[in-house]
Amino acid sequence: MLMMNDLGSMAAGMLPFDPMCGGGLYEQQAPKPPRFVFKMPRVVPDQRNKFETDELFRRLSRESDIRYTGYRDRPHEERQSRFQIGCREGHADIAFTSTGTNLQLTFAPHMPIASYHQPTNGVCDFEKERGAVHILSHFIMNGVCVRWKGRIDLNKLDGTGCLELDEERATIEHRMLQEQIERYNDRIRDYQDKPRAFRNQDRVTEADMENNRRLNY
Hints:
By secondary structure, the protein is of the alpha+beta class. The chain contains five helices and seven strands, in the order αααβαββββββα. Strands 3-2-1-7-6-5-4 form a seven-stranded antiparallel β-sheet.
């Protein structure tokens, strides 16, 4: 039969842990500085200037020889089949032979070339030229909105292509960049205004206390 002291000991041992009693309730904790999360911009401020002056863009903007780079370890016939399957699914890996620059193109699955104006990531067309596929792919490269345009021979798995400045998407991304910078600047201003507001409040409080002391006298 348990004695009262034993019950008291058990009860004391079964008390639930209170996280507020670890000293945190009574200790003064230093306020943590605010965290400003600024996402890395997707584009540079002046996309046109970079596209026209950057040496890599200048070289890739000229129509150059390209080749399909997928499944290099497979037989040529299998690569031909996989390339066409990839195009119909909406992707292709290519490289500029002159610079060795590799690109992973993504675009909408196979559709007529007349649909190029539609707001998609790009298109591919097997109907424009017999024995070849024409591809248009939109993406951001080194902070610049570009589109890759070219043709690839379905038998040889090589062809020609080039990069162009995608002015429409560049305008959209630039507007998004400006909005992102403005939001960030607003947060900085809010953070800088808070200490100033606290200092003004302290001055008002001290003035009120001084007035109260004078009235009491």
